[in-house]
Amino acid sequence: MRRSLLIIMTVMAALWSGPTFAQSRAQLGPLCTSEGTPADQQIDACNKIIALKAFSGEQLATVYFWRAVGWNKKGDYARVIADTTEALRLKPNQALYNMRGSAYYDKGEDDIAIADFNDALKIGPPNGTIFHNRGNAWRSKQDFARAIADYDEAIRLNPKEAYSYQNRGIAKQALGDLDGALADINQAIRLNPALPSPLINRTVIWRAKGDFDRAIADATAAIGLANANAPVAVLTPPGSVLISAYLHRALAYEAKGDFEHAKQDFKATLAGVASDAGSKANQATARVRLSLLSEPVAPSPQTPPASSGEVQTATSTPASPETSTPASLPVPVTTASAGRRVALVIGNGAYAHVRALPNPPNDANSVAKSLRDIGFTVSEGVDLDRAAMQKMTSDFLRGAVRAQVALVYYAGHGVQIDGRNYLVPVDAQLKPGGKITDGMIDMDTILAGLDDPVRTNILMFDACRNNPLEQRIASTEPNRAVEAGSGLAAPGPLGAGSTLGAGTLIAFATAPGRVALDGQGANSPFSAALSRYIGTAGLEVQQMLTRVRAEVVATTGGKQVPWSNSSLLGEVYLAAK
Questions:
Q1: In the chain, N or C terminus with fewer CB closer than 10 Å?
Q2: DSSP SS3 for 319
Q3: From what superkingdom does this record's organism come (predicted)?
Q4: What is d(CA 261, CA 217) in angstroms, rounded to the nearest whole number?
Q5: pTM of the model
Q6: 45 — alpha (psi -120 to 50), left (phi > 0) or beta?
């Protein structure tokens, strides 16, 4: 669950007066203006009142406001915005700006949301609810200092509001202050022990602290409250609380090693109805984690087990897939200072059916060595067919469940098809009658499998070369609406399959839709720069990528500009200061 929002109902309800409204209220008013009315009934009642055409000004604005509440229950934020905009045209009001700002926030348009919250505070008295909601938007923009300042003001104005303590705790957790976060979440629970959401937040904190039994206990309590129809914030989409509680309990069970209970909870996560972005992201993660736990796990007979601290490597020969040697995840190395840090490094160059690439194996070797030198446990694969690549990726995702930092580096062919990105194994080819993406690895699967607020995820893809299948797709699939573009696509909205990715950084060797260079030397321009800077002590990861970007731009004469997108929840140092 992404957040809990509060709205101001009493101001708008006070406008429900007058003789004409009194007559309508007896029949339709209670359905239109009740927080507890089911969404469809509420919308229908408000529609009928609007159809009377008997009201104007503030009274009509009130009806539009309550219909917006109904749309919000359905997660239809575009209609929420339309109705509140019409109401604001009729009569500007603090509650309307707050409501519209909340809808923009739900759509991910944080800057517009903040502007609406600012307007709400300008035209009315100081209001803790609006400070709270603006704090949520600042938190979404990862400006945690401003978020905490707004939550402080919300708590000063409404000292008994549990949600403000809860969300201030979430912001503190993002800054790494787990003890401060725990204190705020505990206060939220004391203020309103009937709320399930603070228990879910405390579940995440216990998992981050490695106390899986307490995490499971809190998630279980949250599920019990949600099933008992415990109160939730008015704007919280239906079902999102249960989806979140089941997911985080499943992750706690998985981290504890209780895989059967984890699978049951992942299935329960998927059984819920997801209407908001956070719930869809949670279900995407549950789908991948359930698939990983449902796969048989058996070490390859050709690959000896690695001892602690060793680097596991794998190669495969596309002409003879039965001889491929996929690797199992090596025994992780834990350091007291940084926690468990694991990396998956793959370089594919020896393609059998599309243009071969000389440098990716060298790129993978260079990056793997650099990561090994700064204490990462590395699973390394070179020239992997799909079976080997799938196994190595699955093993890595399983092992990352208890890691503090998970890093993925891939060099080789990558393609975007219908706006989604796929990594290409060395045996990939188009077969008549087969699905285009059957022989590839879906990048969104990796993103969803790693999506977890207790872990930092860093994914780097030097896979933006010319799409090797673009012309073949066009010639073999002339009647199919398949779009195969150049380079990689920027991670899209949740509906397209990507996740929220809190705590995740994604870097491409060049801008989305552009083509990267393989390089004239032994390494690509991106991997050469990355290998040079990734081990620099005391260099924050985004500063490191800035140096990589500058070197690649200089090396390629401006033809290639590396791109990154971050939702990291704080500063991350790969090499100790």
A1: C
A2: coil
A3: Bacteria
A4: 13
A5: 0.77
A6: alpha
Q: Which amino acid, residue 151?
A: Y
Buried b / exposed e over 422-456, threshold 16 CB at 10 Å, is bbbbbbbebeeeeebbebbbbbbbbbbbbbbbbbb
Question: pLDDT tens digits for 354-404?
Answer: 888 899 999 999 999 999 999 999 999 999 999 999 999 999 999 999 899
Same fold, 1-17+24-124 and 126-192: yes
Residue with tokens 């000389």: 358
Q: Give the pairing type, strands 312-315 and 441-442.
A: unpaired
**CATH entry 1.10.230.10 includes domain 1-17+24-124:** no
Count Cα neighbours of 436 within 13 Å in the Cβ-side half-sphere. Answer: 23
Two structure tokens written together for 319 = 């002409």
**Is the alpha carbon torsion for 516, 521, 522, 527 positive or negative?**
negative
Decide if 301 contacts 325 (C-beta within 8 A).
no
* Helix, coil or strand: residue 552: helix
* Backbone CA torsion sign across 38, 42, 45, 48: negative
CB 519 within 8 A of CB 528: yes
- Do 484 and 437 touch, CB atoms closer than 8 A? no
**Average pLDDT in the 78-97 region?**
94
Q: In the structure, what pLDDT confidence band is assigned to residue 313 with cuts at 50, 70 and 90?
A: low
Minimal CA–CA distance to 379: which of 392, 398, 365?
Answer: 392
CATH of domain 312-566: 3.40.50.1460
| 351 has a pLDDT exceeding 70 | yes
3-class DSSP assignment, residue 392: helix
- Amino acid found at 146: R
CA nearest neighbour of 60 among 26, 102, 90, 19: 90
pLDDT digits (tens, 9 = 90+) for 416-439: 887 788 999 999 886 655 677 888
Q: What is the DSSP letter of 358?
A: S
32, amino acid identity? C
CATH superfamily of the 126-192 domain:
Tetratricopeptide repeat domain (1.25.40.10)
**What's the Cα-to-Cα distance from 79 to each of 36, 68, 260, 286, 370, rounded to whole Å?**
19, 7, 42, 30, 51
In order of 183, 203, 210, 224, 338, the CA distances from 214 in angstroms are 15, 7, 9, 15, 23
The answer to whether the beta carbons of residues 130 and 117 sit under 8 Å apart is: yes
Domain range annotation of the chain: 1-17+24-124, 126-192, 195-294, 312-566
CA distance 491 to 307: 37
**What residues contact residue 228 under an 8 Å CB cut-off, 6+ apart?**
none
> For the CA atoms of 126, 127, 128, 131, what is the dihedral angle to 10 degrees?
-80
Task: Please provide the CATH number assigned to the domain covering 195-294.
Answer: 1.25.40.10
User: CA-CA distances (angstroms) from residue 40 to 43, 82, 287, 306?
Assistant: 5, 17, 30, 58
Locus of tokens 């992997």: 384
DSSP 3-state of 566: strand
Amino acid making up residue 286: A
Round to the nearest angstrom and report the end-to-end CA distance of the chain. Answer: 35
Q: Which residues contact 247 (CB under 8 A, 6 or more apart)?
A: 265, 266, 269, 282, 283, 285, 286
